[in-house]
From TrEMBL:
One of its GO terms (cellular component) is plasma membrane. It is a multi-pass membrane protein. InterPro entries: DoxX, DoxX-like_oxidoreductase. Keywords: Cell membrane, Membrane, Transmembrane, Transmembrane helix. This is DoxX family protein. It comes from the Bacteria. The chain crosses the membrane at residues 21-42, 54-73, 85-101, 113-131.
Length: 141
């Protein structure tokens, strides 16, 4: 029973990896759009053009998130996004408190940064999956 389930699910892995990449990239791009444009919802603290580090983080999140979502330069974009989230966690969240699960003052609110960091880290090594713009570009040549 288990071997049969493993075999059936293994065949779906490339498509599910593409879905994971699409969802993770879209969510990341959404955070970047929220920082830069206050869309789809306001971030609660507006960031001025060129303001360090918020504006630059928003640009990285928007651009890397869109690249990851469509599967274009996925490994490079995931490397940058994972690194940015590691820096964000240790620079912005970890100094507030040791525990990431809860928001301050009990925790540091860094759970999204950790999840994004390791989700993108996984994409660096697994790649983008079956359905990508990179794959489409190479087939069109």
């Amino acid at each position: 029973m288990t071997n049969d389930l493993d075999r059936r699910l293994a065949g779906m892995s490339p498509a599910v990896l593409s879905l994971f990449r699409l969802v993770y990239g879209s969510l990341f791009a959404g955070y970047g759009a929220m920082i830069l444009f206050g869309w789809p919802v306001s971030s609660g603290h507006p960031v001025e053009f060129g303001e360090w580090p918020g504006w630059y983080a928003g640009v990285i999140e928007l651009v890397a998130g869109l690249l990851i979502a469509v599967g274009l330069f996925t490994r490079a974009a995931a490397f940058i996004a994972s690194g940015q989230m590691a820096v964000a966690y240790f620079w912005m969240h970890q100094p507030l408190a040791l525990w990431p699960i809860s928001n301050p003052p009990d925790g540091n609110g860094g759970t999204p940064a950790i999840l994004f960091c390791f989700g993108f880290f996984l994409l660096i090594f697994l790649g983008p999956g079956r359905y990508t713009m990179s794959g489409r570009r190479s087939r069109l040549r």
